[in-house]
Amino acid sequence: MDPVIKVTDLRKNYGGLRAVNGVDFEIGRGECFGLLGPNGAGKTTTVKMLTCALPLSGGDITVEGMSVNKDPRGIKYILGVCPQEVNLDPDFSVLKNLLVYSRYFDIPYSEARKRAVELIDRFHLHDKLERPIEDLSGGLKKRLLLARALINRPRVLILDEPTTGLDPQSRRQIWDEVRGMKSNGLTTLLTTHYIEEAELLCDRLVIVDAGKIVEQGTPQELILKHLDGKGNLEDVFLKLTGRNLRDE
Hints:
Number of domains: 1
Largest sheet: 6 strands, mixed
Structural class: alpha/beta
CATH topology: Rossmann fold
Number of strands: 10
Oligomer: single chain
Shape: globular
CATH architecture: 3-Layer(aba) Sandwich
Radius of gyration: 18 Å
Number of helices: 9
CATH class: Alpha Beta
Helix content: 25-40%
Distance between the termini: 34 Å
Strand content: 25-35%
């Protein structure tokens, strides 16, 4: 495996609480890799450290050989990040949200506008081009967040709980987009607490709980290892953690 992302003994403390406790994993080039776990498992904290938004308490993360401790600017430049929270600018239209964001990557205006219009068409937002963000539904906002994450044509895409709170139809529309990017070889890290989402999209995944990795492998490997191939990923998660993600 050619690791694009390497996480080594990653730790994050908040006072006496260790939110991430000695996490290790690698993500290969072109792979869709999942962090599957309940709310509070440390998934978003891990993502924030990987995206250089939160300092590490210990360990290291490298992205394309660059350490978050030494070259955060270089890492941010090659990442596309779709956050869990909707942080679109409410004062700007759909188009202007993309154009303003493109400035962080020094993309010339003419090129930024071209990319923005292409992404707006791709995510079926063309009839909302000049509409304010408050006019968008939850599903449309998520689509715009994903479009924004792609404006810089990233080498690595980070999706933090991309479908949380969406209705089933909107969720499947996001899944279709992620599968399309996956088929084009974009390296992707996905955090989720939806079993079906992880099983459908992830080449490999880690199961995380209470800041630790409980198990890792492909969905099929985990089912074979822990259930002799008789069951599904939800049954594996319940066996390993004693928790049912449907209750989260």
